[in-house]
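#lab-general

N.A. 3:47 PM
ok so I finally got the sequence cleaned up, no stray characters, all 282 residues accounted for. can someone with queue access submit it? mine expired

B.Y. 3:52 PM
send it over

N.A. 3:53 PM
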Amino acid sequence: MTQLAEVVLQEINELIDSDRLVLPTLPEVALKAREVAEDPNASAGSLAKVVSTDAAMTARIIKVANSPIMRGAREIQDVQMAIARLGITCISNLVTGLAMEQMFQATTDFIDKTMRKSWAHSTEVAGIANVICRHYTKLKPDQATLAGLIHEIGILPILTYAEESDRLNDPIALQKVIDMIHPQVGVRILQSWEFPKELVDVPANFTKFHRDTKSDKPDYADIVMVANLQTYLEQKDHPFMQMDWSKISAFKRVGLEPNKESGQDEDLSAEMEAAMAMLQAG
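B.Y. 4:20 PM
back already:
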């Protein structure tokens, strides 16, 4: 870690500890949806009532439920039908992930552009993670999708800090600091949101390419790691493309060949595109 990154991380931690830099909070619709999902007595109707208070979220959930990845024989026309098909936990995870887009906004053009780029990348990783999870693992695809959407959540407080500090007014320096410290900050955010440990571990581990999990079974950090690497297939000069993927044990745990050739499986690639599209607004 560079000296600048160490100074920024220390300052951000101090600001968070003293409540002078408030960690982002989940939008209300996501908080209420998670509350319903954690209630063993909750019904599809109670969750539908929560989601239906947000017209934009309602439209997004129906769009996802009718996407090529999710849809069944009948077209989904309302949230209640979507919950009946996908389940309370799945819908709650989707609401949580999609609601986070509201947080990726800033007051300056430069920071706003950086946030939007991060969110676009997160939706790409989430879509790929969903498909990898369904085809190669026994883990939950909706949880893998959420893992992809939150893997860079630590960027938000760093950009808030950058808006108010003179230390990070250089784009190159800012990006280096983000790359170095966003995992630690992301862990703090997810802990404050009381996310399960399997998701809290994602920001900290998705770039630890040689970590030893002492298990031959994949976790969500493995899925996000592999999905994230897939997003760089067209960027041959990126540092991730210079690594020897055959030495990255996550591929073996997930069950996917560490192939750097894009379009290696056209059916899977098409499915990944569809999964990414279902997470995008509009």
